[in-house]
Amino acid sequence: MMAEVVRSVRLSPSYVRLTFAGLDGLERRGADHWCRLFFTREGQDVLALPSRTSEIGWYLQYLATPKSRRPWVRAYTIRNARPEAGEVDIDFVIHGDRDGNIGPASRFALDATPGDRVGFLDQGVGFTPHHPHDWTLLIGDETALPAIAGICSALLDSAQGVAIIDIPKASDRQPFPAPPGIEVSWIARDQSPHSDARPGSLALQALMSAKLPEGVVHAHAIGESALATGARRHLVQDREFSKRHVDFAGYWRHGRPATS
Ligand SMILES: Cc1cc2nc3c(=O)[nH]c(=O)nc-3n(C[C@H](O)[C@H](O)[C@H](O)COP(=O)(O)OP(=O)(O)OC[C@H]3O[C@@H](n4cnc5c(N)ncnc54)[C@H](O)[C@@H]3O)c2cc1C
Fold first, then answer.
1. I want to staple 135 with a disulfide (CB 3.0 to 4.6 A). Which of 10, 90, 147, 160 is the partner?
2. Residue 89 — φ and ψ, nearest 5°?
3. Domain 2-124 indexed as CATH 2.40.30.10
4. Which of 106, 120, 225 has most ligand 1 atoms within 8 Å of CB, for mutation?
5. Is 91 in the pocket of ligand 1 (CB under 6 A)?
6. Centre of ligand 1 from the C-alpha of residue 120, in Å
7. Distance between alpha carbon 103 and the CA centroid of its chain, in Å?
8. What residue ranges do the domains of the chain occupy?
9. pLDDT tens across 51-93, in order?
10. May I ask the CATH class of domain 135-252?
């Protein structure tokens, strides 16, 4: 499916929200519905989208495409979906600047104007708590804010728990609806003595020193890979939470571009 940019809004210093249209038949998959976006590389006039749409099928076809014709592929969370209009909003973190270490997806978001097109293929959800639990723990960096906001908005009103979100600047804070029993804690790196800390590292420190609720947890740790794996290790090894109760997903790796 192709999606077309219809609006671009600079939400705050680190986020650009792009609204994409043309997604007829889109079905909401869940609170942290993600999708893969395909972008043309420099020198490509045509976006060579895989024709196969199954989870493995598109990837095998992608790998079989000569490198010079492969698009860039990056995963993003759908922040808001309006299926009746075939529209979604996606909040892109703008990391780096045009002259610096910026990736193709972040650059696309920075420069996007109405009419620009991306491929939209392969979708899923990450937050799938299947066991009975007393409270929820959500922890992530700026790339996880759209997912954590979506999850909090979808939790039962009676839900209890903690959400820790590590953002570059205090002005990147985006208030979102959450049950009264979920304590949302923002960590703004520009307000800490460690403003150049790696995204997610201050959240991990905060988790390690936090007094957490009692009872069975469902924990979901997402964002920079060291945060996701570090949070899981801490919860399982130091706090002795069951592995089965702690989900984690590395969304990106510090110093390494996404692999496709
Ligand atoms: C399921 C899922 C959902 C996601 N949802 C979102 C979302 O809603 N919004 C969002 O912004 N991202 C989201 N991400 C993360 C996003 O896919 C990555 O950040 C992606 O690598 C950005 O691509 P790029 O082309 O800009 O940079 P790349 O080409 O992948 O990387 C270029 C350089 O930039 C660095 N880099 C990449 N991302 C960041 C970052 N955020 N901050 C600092 N440095 C970075 C890399 O380490 C590398 O050195 C999600 C990822 C997953 C797996």
1. 160
2. -105, 135
3. yes
4. 106
5. yes
6. 16
7. 15
8. 2-124, 135-252
9. 887 878 899 999 998 888 899 999 999 999 999 999 999 999 9
10. alpha beta
